[in-house]
Amino acid sequence: MFEIVKNKDMLSECFYIRREVFVKEQGVPLENELDSFEEESIHIIGYDKNHVPFACARFRPYNNAAKVERVAILKPYRKDGYGKTMMHAIERFAKDKGYNQLVLNAQVQAQGFYEKLGYIQTGPVFIEENIDHIKMYKNI
């Protein structure tokens, strides 16, 4: 269901999901959604049973941890446990790459989701792209 992106077609599918979620739904400008970390990041994509892409995320080196970013699930697939499954996959992939800690900037609306997965808040609320965020981490 979730796998590491292996080619440009898979990466294009990730970018499509991110445009749908962050640009269309949340109003993030496209020029801010795609950034200079795309190439150094390890991208993850989720496919449903019909091989339709529906979720994505990425992680990259960040100090001594892996920073998880751009976690996105298309609206029809939300509330079905896929977010939890994807985060567990990311944790497994990051651990396989030698990381023992994940950090992320969660949207405040998703803070409870991440807390249920064992992530801990590490700072105050801050605004990024006009959306409230919170820094969190988890040792894996």
UniProtKB/TrEMBL annotation:
GO cellular component annotations of the record: cytoplasm
PROSITE patterns associated with the record: GNAT (PS51186)
Domain N-acetyltransferase: 2-140
Highest rank taxon of the organism: Bacteria
InterPro entries: Acyl_CoA_acyltransferase, GNAT_dom, NAA80
One Pfam family, short name: Acetyltransf_10
Molecular function via GO: acetyl-CoA binding; N-acetyltransferase activity
Name of the protein this chain belongs to: N-acetyltransferase domain-containing protein
Species in which this protein is naturally found: Staphylococcus haemolyticus (strain JCSC1435)
Taxonomic placement: Bacteria, Bacillati, Bacillota, Bacilli, Bacillales
